[in-house]
Amino acid sequence: MSAPINGTMMQYFHWYISPHDSLWGQVSDEVQALAANGITALWLPPAYKGESGQNDVGYGVYDLYDLGEFEQKGGIPTKYGTKQQYLNAISAAHAANVQVYGDVVFNHRGGGDKTEWVKAIRVLQNDHNFEVGDQEWIEAYTTFTFPGRRGAYSDFVWRYYHFDGVDYAANMDSGKQGIFKFLGLGKDWEKMVCAENGNYDYLMYCDLDMNHPEVRTELARWGRWYLDISNVDGFRFDAVKHIQFSFFRNWLDDIRRYSHKDLFAVGEYWDPGNVDALHNFIAHTHGKMSLFDAPLHRNFYQASRSNGTYDMRTIFDRTLVKDNPTLAVTLVDNHDTQPLQALESPVDYWFKPHAYAMILLREAGYPCVFYPDYYGASYSDKGIDIYLAEVPHLKTMLSLRRDTAHGKQHDYLNDPDIIGWTREGLQGKTGVAVVLTNRSGGAKWMYVGMQHAGKVYADVLRNSAAQTRINEYGWGEFMVRDGSVSVYCEAQV
Fold it and tell me: Considering 238, 293, 459, 490, which one is annotated as catalytic?
């Protein structure tokens, strides 16, 4: 399924959301206002029980069938609330005409209930194809019985033969831990995965064996159950570069046939320096899901840290939104790139309005707004206090995307410092003219359409006090201040 035309997704969480924030209740309370501001879909965090219980963001997935319903891992609720609160949040979103995308973690399981002795061999951290030492028997937490659920919804028990490897052996001290590849039963890493580290099938915890028929069958069964229970409108898939690419073709085909819906899907293939890897994944999955445009995030990050030396003509070079806009989900930051996280690379605050203008006010891509950029956030980790402020003008740009930034686009990406574009408008919507710079201010002549001849345009962000009258040929001169962004619309005079 392609992205909704002119839709806007919001990642409605960040890594440091607290259980005390009662996120599911917050969704119910806030979704009407979000819809009024132009949000059309919410990507919600993993809704199932993680191995750390209420302290788990959801990516250390323990039990896919426990949406905050069973006494497991120290309590009943997940970090975000109970199953009923989750379902209420989805119902509230649908009542506001906002779609919901469920976050799906298929790559691994954590927090096993019992250990098993498994024959394995170590591999190098930076080359998973390179075996080290002799074969050995390890005690691995590979049995998942979910005693708190007692077989409700599924009586499937996960065993060692459903996994390819682990990174913890209970019979060894900390100095002997590593990545262990399982042996026997034809075990090996999956082949159609990212080629980093030799083979990047293994990421963490107990790595699922997507070649095992029982694994594929159980994940298909769960998908149908989850869709029936939640009524979500699509999926965000975690860590897709670590999972056999062909698995997603089959899983999505099955769930779409079952639902009779063209469910949206987006995958996290995080390789910001290699857009070709994203193209390769799209080819192997036959274009059945979108991908987050990690290379575009990288360009934003580099531009924001360049002290004005970044060549803005190249801001969209080697990005998915430029090469394959219908399958690109564009973003500024996410829970992994935020400060103190594993992929920490936050776009500098001064440049965030620029970046949001580039994903919200252009025709290409399906933009995703990050929770702290909309609400702000504060948290502490590793003895460091972090405060993230709301991005200036973000709510205004969301409204502009919904109401004004429509119609044919004209690009003026022809200066190393000052770039811009216009949208002519469509069916009564007036269109916009956007101009931004990462360095010195100035002016740019841009065409907005002859139908706007004689109209006066003003900067709705009020970063520039200048106004421009569109000439008889549909052109105007649009000003921008140093290091700023301006969005011009027809002035109300």
Answer: 238
